[in-house]
Amino acid sequence: MVRSGALYVWDFDEDGGDLNVRVSGQLIFNTSEHIVDAALAGLGIAFLPEEEFGNHIQEGRLIRILEPWCRPFAGYHLYYPSRKQPSPAFSLVVEALRLPVTSNRQRRQAMAIRSPNVSGYGSK
């Protein structure tokens, strides 16, 4: 969900053709863990980078659909003014995004470990 209250559009691409899908439904989540849990429970389709699914695909708990249409995750990109001294919080986010982790859950856990002042993140 974006700040305006609208849902993100799902973007697909195959052989240079774009397909943008406005999704609707009863379930809206703020974390990838909840999205994966809902897919595992059979509540719908999850649209996330592959690393978010851990071993669920390899172990047969989830299957890929629309695979030819899914773009590879290009990574995170940050744009910020280089002339301004970054805040400690911003520096923490940049450091966490540079970590070689395999999921957003691990990234959030690493951020929480590095900064005890960050609340709402960590292991279950």
Automatic annotation (TrEMBL):
InterPro entries: LysR-type_TF_proteobact-type, LysR_subst-bd. It comes from the Bacteria. GO terms for molecular function: DNA-binding transcription factor activity; sequence-specific DNA binding. Residues 3-98 form the LysR substrate-binding domain. One of its GO terms (biological process) is DNA-templated transcription. PANTHER family: HTH-TYPE TRANSCRIPTIONAL REGULATOR, HTH-TYPE TRANSCRIPTIONAL REGULATOR PGRR. Belongs to the LysR transcriptional regulatory family. This is Transcriptional regulator.
